[in-house]
Specification:
This protein is of the alpha/beta class. The chain contains 13 helices and nine strands. Strands 3-2-4-1-5-6-8 form a seven-stranded parallel beta sheet, with helices on both faces. The radius of gyration is 21 Å and the shape is globular. It binds guanosine-5'-triphosphate and magnesium ion. Guanosine-5'-triphosphate binds next to helix 4 and helix 5.
Length: 326
Amino acid sequence: MNDADGDAVLLRDFAARSPRALARAISVAETGRGAELIRRLYERAGHAMTIGLTGPPGVGKSTLGSALVRKARSLGKSVGVVSVDPSSPFSHGALLGDRIRLAEHFTDAGVFIRSMASRGHLGGLAGATADAVLLMDAFGKEVILIETVGVGQSEIEIAELAATTIVALQPGSGDSIQVLKAGIMEVADIFVVNKADHPMANQLKREIRSMMEMLAFSGWVPELVVTQAISGAGVDDLWRAVERHAAYLQSSGEIVERRREAFAHQVRQLALGTLQRKLDRELASEIVAGADPYSAARSILRTFGVDTEEPEEGGRPSHLRASVKG
Ligand SMILES: Nc1nc2c(ncn2[C@@H]2O[C@H](COP(=O)(O)OP(=O)(O)OP(=O)(O)O)[C@@H](O)[C@H]2O)c(=O)[nH]1
Ligand SMILES: [Mg+2]
């Protein structure tokens, strides 16, 4: 069977909603060979409710995610879960944890769970994740949950794929300050203080409130929800906050803007991935040998047909929802 036949079979099974076809499609995309598939399936996507769930290691993202999946299932919605661990090249650790935390959902045909590990994708791990979300969306998943360990920029990017971003924090770990530094605060639509059973939960709530006072919001003001993921306490509140945010995005029209941003981001990553590879090839060539860095950069760009004027001033990153009050 050649590739074209293979693709046709895959597309047929995908359209027939075979979970194996979805798994296979994600694998194809993950290894950087998904362009044709995505082209064929793209117009089917754009209907899912996408929820990003980020926060420091061990805060309870998977437990909370599992509880959210349970909630969505109780409402009869089909669910996709993408679990990403950007800090390691392999997702074995995350996978093992998720096997336990999400155990009850593995046997539910209405839930599709995928851990992302590969870095073979042109757009990096964020690109592979974006493809997985798009494919789940095109497959007909109504709710897609994207779990990432949130400590740096790439994790923020991944959370940004989602229409609604939940940032989870846990009491007594000094996380809140870290989060502010890392700029995660500015991308949160909903803050969750998980581990409500912890004696310092109230203090963390106060810390988040006072940090929010330092930020200026235009439009949506992030909600603060307290949960105890292991018992499920507060999960209904969290779900309602997600629904309120989704309703806000629709009624304000902001959903269009967010989709446009996510699209632009994905295109940028793909284009930059290609440029990076070309650039690396040129760097190994003799064009740059013996040259100073500025001249070398100019010669390389000339081979790409780029005229080098003064670089333009970069604007404010478009993913930021809030800004620090001046
Ligand atoms: N006391 C308490 N423990 C919790 C709560 N929620 C989760 N945990 C525990 O916290 C630990 C980490 O939970 P996970 O759900 O794996 O956390 P995570 O954020 O997904 O972890 P990583 O994916 O490794 O970053 C587990 O032992 C959970 O049982 C809670 O509300 N209260
Ligand atoms: Mg986890």
